[in-house]
Input
Amino acid sequence: MTLHLYFHPLSSYCHKALIALYERDVAFTPELVDLGDAASRARFVALWPLAKMPVLRDEARGCTIAESTVVIDYLDAFYPGAPLTPSEPDAAWRTRLWDRFFDNYLQTPMQKIVGDGFRPEGCGDTFGVAQAIADIGRAYDILDRELGANTWAVGETFTLADCAAVPALIYADAVAPLPAHARNVASYLDRLLARPSVARTLREAEPYFPSFPLDRKPRIQPRRASSVS
Output
């Protein structure tokens, strides 16, 4: 196959790219990267020296594409299927806004909390973790208010923003559980988890979730049956 995706099944940003590939039904070769294995790491660094995932390699076009949002943009530009960033200007900037919201205001504080779990005993950043939990709480409140009656993040069409939402929400919920009052977010997450492209991505990742460093593991099944797909 011309496309190769370098990824790890536990990586939240890799989930984002995988959902887009499955959503568009684009054929690709999965290339699992184990940064703890010297040979695997060396092969990946030779392709992308920053060693950050995901990375898409398009052999047919001779292109190496890094960063999950850019990978999805590349698929929109060069591969068949409905674009995941709408062409209509207002829908486009709103999609971009929510993509950045999920990456910056849920994923970033979530990764702070997860990263703290890897620190040696006695070296934790209690204050930083408390700040990150508060940041996630504020993000939940904003998202709950802005979602309203929307089916997806930007109205009634599944977009780049929804690809970003999945890993952001399942991992954020694992480290800072959704509050009971965030009903719109809870319903939205249920719809996301029922989406076939999402279900496939998380089903493939499930065997790796025991390695998640915190006691509470990401939820991959909707709490309620959903007819949205």
Observations:
- The mean pLDDT is 94.
- The beta strands are 3-7, 29-32, 55-58, 63-66.
- The chain is about 55% helix and 5% strand.
- Residues 3-78 form a domain with the Glutaredoxin fold (CATH 3.40.30.10).
